[in-house]
Write a structure and sequence with these properties.
This protein is mainly beta. It has one helix and ten strands, in the order ββββββββββα. The protein has one helix at 166-172, and strands at residues 12-18, 31-39, 49-51, 62-66, 78-83, 91-100, 116-121, 124-129, 139-147, 153-162. Strands 4-5-1-7-8 form a five-stranded antiparallel beta sheet, with no helix packed on it. The longest helix is centred in the last third of the chain and has 7 residues, at 166-172. It starts with 11 loop residues before the first strand and ends in a 6-residue tail after the last helix.
Length: 178
């Protein structure tokens, strides 16, 4: 997706995740944004690296600026920034997803109130989703960014649900859809 005729590909992307806190007396719902970066020569292989809570990419081009464990507060609960225009040409694909921590039992997106993902480039909304299409899942991919043959980054909305724990999700989230 090219944002406009003057823009070549994508540059700095912001992904926002929000959800409402658990009902009083119930365990907190903890959702996490995660990005998997894949090498250009192996775009569907193992991730070269992951960015999630308490981490950032080795070169600083992908970072998680806000990490909530409860969904409390105003505005987005988690914010991830991808500076695709600064990412090394060694990398050709980035997949972003949302995983629900499963410490309090089997929790799906249906169990978490008011979920929402917003993907922006500057003030331009690239995508928005409430994850209701994957309500029975415990994790979901939400975006795929790929470098084309000219070296420019392109966006594809990719909301796919998974019923697995976060550790397994980060291993399989970038596999080719069947």
């Amino acid at each position: 997706m090219t944002v406009n005729g003057l823009n070549k590909g994508l540059g700095k992307i912001e992904i926002q995740l929000k959800w409402d806190p658990s009902p009083t007396g119930e365990p907190d719902h903890d959702l996490d944004l995660v990005a998997a970066t894949y090498r250009a020569d192996d775009p569907y292989g193992r991730p070269a690296y992951l960015v999630h809570f308490d981490s950032r990419s080795p070169d600083g081009t992908i970072s998680l600026n806000r990490d909530s464990r409860t969904g409390q507060g105003f505005g987005p609960d988690e914010v991830m920034v991808l500076e695709l225009d600064r990412l090394s040409p060694d990398y050709g694909r980035v997949v972003v997803g949302v995983a629900i921590q499963q410490g309090a039992g089997h929790i799906t997106f249906h169990d978490v109130a008011n979920t929402g993902v917003l993907i922006l480039q500057g003030y331009t909304r690239l995508a928005e989703d409430d994850l209701s299409g994957v309500a029975g899942a415990t994790a979901a991919t939400v975006a795929e960014f790929t470098r084309d043959t000219t070296g420019e980054w392109r966006f594809r909305e990719d909301v796919r649900g998974f019923d697995t724990d976060p550790a397994t999700f980060v291993r399989i989230m970038g596999e080719r859809p069947v």
